[in-house]
Amino acid sequence: MPDVPGFAEGWGMSIVPCPYCDGFEVAGQHGGLVWSGPQSHNQVRLFHDWTDKLTLFADGHDIPPNIRSDLERRNTPVVEGRITEIARYGGHGATVKLDSGTDVAVDILFAHPRNKPSASLHESLGLATVDTPLGIVLKVDERRETSTPGIYAAGDLATPFLPSVTLASSQALGAMAGIFAQQSMLA
Fold this sequence. Notes:
Blueprint: H1 7-10, E1 15-16, H2 19-22, E2 31-34, H3 39-47, E3 54-57, H4 65-73, E4 78-79, E5 83-88, E6 94-98, E7 103-106, E8 108-110, H5 121-124, E9 129-132, E10 135-138, H6 165-169, H7 171-184
């Protein structure tokens, strides 16, 4: 989580990462999106399926001119400045406070903080990582094997394309890792 007062406290209620998981409850309401890099442009397009009123918070990032043109065409205002605090109000609602002194209220705030391992086990095992636009993940091959033979991984720690509780807990990737780990032990 970014070191912004109120961000961690609002996570899962007024700040959420996924419209598939949380968009239905706030469909048609005023959404906010914190820019986290070029992948956020795709999120803008996606969120417009849930609402016609979306505000993008640049949070101090430079947004390329071609993307700004597309945002303007989509009637998506860009609010400049760094986010200094997130204050909750009501169920999903949040007030985004900026270093310019501006406060912007939204009914839901979408954000995609960069992922990183929450423990250092991978470091102590010497496992290679990959830095992706969404954060740091373990490097695995198609069999889910890490850079250290015999060690397999699944879930968000080894899924660079879409961090998701559903995917992390799904049986498919975990089952693959388990099957290939067991097969690697056969004589």
